[in-house]
Design a protein that fits this description.
Layout lengths: L2 E6 L6 H9 L17 E6 L3 H10 L3 E3 L2 E6 L18 H4 L4 E7 L15 H32 L3 H18 L11 H9 L8 E6 L10 H13 L2 E5 L1 H8 L4 H10 L6 H13 L1 E7 L3 E8 L4 H8 L1 H5 L1 E7 L1 H7 L2 H6 L4 E3 L10 E6 L2
Parallel strand pairs: 1-4, 1-5, 3-9, 5-6, 6-7
Antiparallel strand pairs: 2-4, 8-9, 10-11, 10-12
């Protein structure tokens, strides 16, 4: 698994330009008017990881397969979207399916690009988006509440517990607090996830700045970073214009040279991925052989059988053991056989916690 991010923002903040650049496609038309994205666009990109290239070279793998990251570009929200303004809340439904929400906020001045509210203010824009998502959540919960009340009257224990959770969440939303701030027990976690609330998703703010501010950000992006920190969210500075230019270059050498002339070490995509992985608590493990070297993603805290299940459900069901090599050992010693001979390939069982960079060979029996 990789992870799936919904890209949201007000019109004309550079959201679709960013989507195009990140996915290196022109699927989402970027234009200087609201609602140019009529259907949610989905783009998948391979997650860049230099470790995978290194492993593939040592293992003499014929194919390199990175883990996948999926972006869903959702039409520009406006004030009143939850009540049907603009293109309405038909697009809010698309956000319910994602793992995290990327909120693109405009942190640049440009008289040639109009702002839907007349002036650039990323904090106000972020609050507008959050308000619309909270209103949509309140509407969703009110509808669920009616059915839960009926079931609770019939002494349905599970309905009673869910109703209590829904009422607590509604109170928080009415107080202007997103669903993610609601305290819940471990027993309530599954029921909470089933509610599929928009404001329960973790948030990554992407500050779209002018080209001159791409390396260090500016006063506007600093304000957003401070807001994100207060919320327990994360933020990253990107110039969608630069990302668009980089995506049009043919070779990695050209891309790196272009970035260096701008004082940048890496693409915005790499920063978005790194922050996104940290936000969701994801780590990467690898498999390697003559046919392919491949990267896989699991949540931090996953055990070996769960990692095996990411590859194939049969691997998890019939898990016996995981022959495990640390990335550093694999590279330093020059491959699987050398690691075996040096005693660096370990036999790990069902309780083994996966570490970022582990190289696995799973043994299973179905």
């Amino acid at each position: 698994m990789g992870f799936k991010c919904g890209i949201v923002g007000l019109p004309n903040v550079g959201k679709s330009t960013l989507f195009n650049a990140l996915t290196a496609t022109a699927a989402a038309e970027a234009a200087n008017f609201p609602f140019c994205t009529i259907e949610p666009n989905v783009g998948r990109v391979g997650v860049p990881d230099a470790r995978l290239d290194q492993i593939a070279a040592i293992g003499k793998s014929a194919q390199i397969i990175p883990t996948q990251l999926e972006f869903v570009d959702i039409a520009g929200l406006v004030r009143g979207a939850s009540k049907g303004e603009g293109l309405g809340n038909q697009f809010l439904a698309n956000i319910r399916e994602v793992d995290a929400i990327i909120k693109v906020v405009r942190c640049f001045e440009d008289e040639n690009v109009t702002h839907v509210d007349g002036a650039v203010d990323p904090i106000r824009d972020a609050e507008t988006i959050e308000t619309e998502l909270m209103l949509a959540d309140m509407e969703s919960l009110e509808k669920r509440k009616e059915a839960l009340v009926k079931k609770a009257r019939g002494q349905d224990k599970e309905a009673k517990q869910t109703l209590e959770l829904v009422e607590r969440t509604l109170a928080a939303l009415a107080d202007g607090k997103p669903a993610r701030t609601v305290e819940r027990t471990d027993d309530e976690q599954k029921a909470f996830q089933m509610l599929q609330l928009l404001t329960s998703k973790p948030i990554l703010y992407v500050c779209n700045v002018d080209e001159d501010s791409a390396a260090d950000g500016n006063a506007l992006s600093t304000k957003v970073a401070e807001m994100a920190k207060e919320q327990g969210a994360r933020s990253v500075v990107i110039s969608a214009k630069i990302e668009e230019e980089v995506s049009q270059l043919d070779t990695e050498e050209e891309k790196q040279e272009f970035l260096e002339t701008l004082g940048l070490e890496e693409t915005g995509l790499a920063r978005v991925i790194r922050e996104g992985y940290a936000l969701l608590g994801l780590i990467t493990f690898f498999t390697v052989g003559p046919k392919e070297a491949r990267a896989w993603t699991v949540h931090n805290g996953a055990k070996a059988p769960e990692a095996a299940g990411v590859i194939h459900t049969d691997f998890e069901k019939g898990f016996i053991k995981a022959e495990t090599t640390a990335y550093d050992d694999f590279v330093e010693l020059g491959g699987e056989q050398a690691c075996k001979e040096a005693g660096k390939m370990r036999q790990e069982g069902k309780d083994y916690l996966v570490h970022d960079g582990d190289i696995f060979l799973f043994r299973f029996n179905v």
